Structures are given as C-alpha cells and as structure tokens.
Amino acid sequence: MSARIVFGATDYVCTQVVSVTCCGCVWAPGRVGRFRLTEAIHSRGINARYLGRIRAEIADADFRAIILVDIVARVIKNNLRTRLRAKMKQLKKPMEEPYRRLVVNYMNLIFGHTGQSDSYWSGTIRDDITRNFTQALTPLELSVALFKPRRVAADAGHDQQASPLDTNFLLLLLQRFVKMTGIAFSSRIMNEALFSMPQPFTDTDLETLPLTIKHLNVINFAEGFFLHMRGLEWRLTDPQLAERFYRNAIEKFHKALDSNPNNKEVLQGVALTWTFLLEDQYARVICEGGYFPKSDEKVIEATEYYLRSIYAPPKYDSQSLFLYAYFLERLGQFDSAEDYYLQSLEADPNNAACLLQYGNFLVERGQAHYAERMWLRGSATTADTDWNYWGMGKTAWDRSNSKSTSRSRLAQQR
Fold it and tell me: What backbone torsions phi and psi does residue 297 show, to the nearest 5 degrees?
C-alpha cells in the first residue's frame, strides 16, 4: 500500500467521516449514563484516537464533557499500566498486595484534593491528552492554571465554561475508568463529596484487581514465571511434578499473551518452558549425544515462540537471539546456532549468559582456545548482568555437567 493511499484515507477519516459521525451521534442531556461513546464511533469505523477531533466538532457542552471523560479515562488507564509494568519488572513475584497498593496510591493522586494532584492534572494528564488526542482541548483548557479539577463550588467569577472538571466530572471519570479496566471499588467511593478529601481511597476500597487487563496481564505473567521456576526446582527430583508446573506456566503465559501478543518476556517464557519440557523428556537421548527430534510438536511450538520473540519490537535483541541459538544447539543445528550466538553478541557484546554458553558450545566443537576467551569475558560481566533470568544461569552450566567439568574438557584438549 502506497503512502499516497494511506495519507488519502487518513485525510478522508479526519475531514469527512468524523464530521458525519458528529452529526449522526444523537445526544440528549438525559443520556449521560446510557450513551456508549465507544460503540457509537466504532460502529462508524472511527478509532478512539480521533476522539479529540470529534470533540472539536461538537458544540454541546455536556456532550463535550462526556467525550473528555472518555479521553481522560484512557490517559490515566495507560499511565496506570505503565506504573504496573514497572512494578512487575521490579518484583517478578506473583504477589497482589504491592500492585493493590500502587493502584490505591495512583487513584489518590488522580482524585485526591492535593497540590500534587492539581500539578499532575495540569502537567502529565494535560500533556498526554495534547499528545495523543489532537484538538481535544480548547485554548482555555490548555491553560495550566485552569486544567485541574474543581472539587468545591466554583467562585462567582470563575469561568465554568473554561474547565468542565467539576466533581460530577470526576465521578463520571471514575465510573468510566472502572468499566474500562475491570477494577472494582467499594460503593462508598462512588460519592462526589469524597473528592474534596486529600486521600479518598483506602486499601479496603479496592475490592477486585482483575487478573486480566487489556495490554497488561501482570498477575498471569508473574504466576507463569513462578510456575516456570518451580518446574526447574523439581526437574531432577520429581520430573512429573516439574512437567505439571511447566504446563501450568505455559497456560498462564498464553493468558498473558492474549492481552499483549508481542511481549518479549512472555514469548521467551513460553519458548523456554517448552525447551525445558523437551530436555526432561529426552534427557537420556541428550546424555547419549542425541538431539531433540524435529518432528516433536513441542519443538514446533518452541520454534514458533523463539522466532516471535526475535521479531517482536525491538527486533533482534541479544537475549532472544541467544535463547534461540541455545535451542538450535539442542536440535543439532550447529551452523545456525553459531550464527545466532554471534548475532546475539553483536547486539550485546556483554551478554554474560551468551558468552558462557557460547564457550560451552565452542568446547563441544573442539575450539578450546576460543572457548576460554568467551568464559573469561562472561565471568567478567556476570557480576553486573542479570543473566540468571528464567533459570538460564544454572542451565547454561548444567548442559556441560557444570563449569568445572567444562574446564576439565578444556584441559584435556590442551
């Protein structure tokens, strides 16, 4: 599809379809709680990113306020997801309490009557609206001084047309946010009077933090990671229990991918869990110098997720390339494995896991001198690199029967 066609289609949506949609949306003051804005625009083929343009075409003040509620709800939802992702990467544990505390604190930042909240509205929220929803705000609403909630009755001289962010707006915003995310709060909080308090939300007000949130699945990913590591713990003493952990982990990862199919960490988790299942199933074959059979369904599954991880943005990252190289080595495809090892080190010369495992690979290929170089480089960077993620730090040495055994082979070859 040429750029000319894309620009033409975009211009048509912005100049024609949006205007027609604005004329076709029937609005009445009594429809505040029943009007389904998203359904109205989607049924006319308009993406929610054009809500700003739609609002600019609307003259009715109440209708404009409802559109702004939807826009702000989307902004705070995305900002909350960003904070949850950061917390997830920090903890990597299937505990709900830290995420509950984060949600409550963020809700107080949005709805609490504090100077910090006003600054967040006039700064972060206003800037995000301007950046993501073109023409959503009027020049008066763009004013830093005006774009903040009015949590008490307005003064007589206050221009209420300039800022519709009153307590009724905040209540509609909270209701829309709850509907978007599935997060449930106690009925106590659905009260306009609470928005004049510095911290209207408490820990007990958060009743449900759903396992599934669109584009973010914190709990499913964390549980999958936990089950994956539990499988590694039991693989030697109870392989059947380990397999159950692995399969439950894969199920959790799949649920996480339903929300975000291009999450590299989750894709890597699925692929590695299939790989460990294969290693346990064919442990005797591997000990006898054999490889995974390419016809096994688990090999096909693992290959798909390794490649998806490599091509998911940002493409060709060092970790994904390294993990796929390790998998190709287990398939006996040594030329391809070495190519991916080198690509991984080209992307990140300090990838400790790749350096160490590539050293093991070179020993098996009879290149002891180069293997020692890789080991020395890997050992020098291990202290500063979290290369034990997914248990690869342990398994990288296990494949060669521990680091000492590998070095014994090196001495023998000399």
Answer: -60, -35
